[in-house]
Automatic annotation (TrEMBL):
PANTHER family: CYTOCHROME B561 (PTHR30529), CYTOCHROME B561 HOMOLOG 2 (PTHR30529:SF1). Residues 8-173 form the Cytochrome b561 bacterial/Ni-hydrogenase domain. It comes from Methylophaga nitratireducenticrescens. The keyword Transport applies. Its cofactor is heme b. Belongs to the cytochrome b561 family. It is found in: Cell membrane. The chain crosses the membrane at residues 12-29, 49-67, 88-109, 143-163. The keyword Transit peptide does not apply. This is Cytochrome B561.
Amino acid sequence: MLHDNNERYGSITRFFHWVIAVLVLQQFFKFADRINEGEHWLGDTFGPWHVTMGATILVLTIARLLWTMKQKPQRPTNPGMDGVIAKLAHRLMYLSLLVMPFLGALYIYGKGYPVKVFGVELIAKPADEVPWALSLGEWHSPFAFLLVFLVIAHIAGALYHHIIQKDDVLKRMAG
């Protein structure tokens, strides 16, 4: 089943969800840079891919939003306060996933480095640091912490529905 219906999400929606989830989890390894002043195997292993994966997440998020808008009339819904909370959390996650790559690029550029994705220079190295870009780019980390909180809340909500409510909310997105 490719398309969503009232009972469950289709394979395309599930594909976007799980691929983005894995990539976002991989992005969280960047927090390892805060351990031992950046000298940690997690940061060394995943850090060099952070910008490229961020750009990939941006493209997949835009594609997912376009797909979601197309599927909206037949998608499953959560009634009541749970649905309101879920909708707000999802919107905040989408906002974070959409703005963080741009804020990260501004941070890198503001620090005086070129912005490269898959090794291709998208924004050339500035002559010097760019204070306005750095100032805006510093919002990348607060959005990252917000996203971590939202992901934990999202997982907790799914488990709450599965274990406590014993409804099919979690099964809608599972294979």
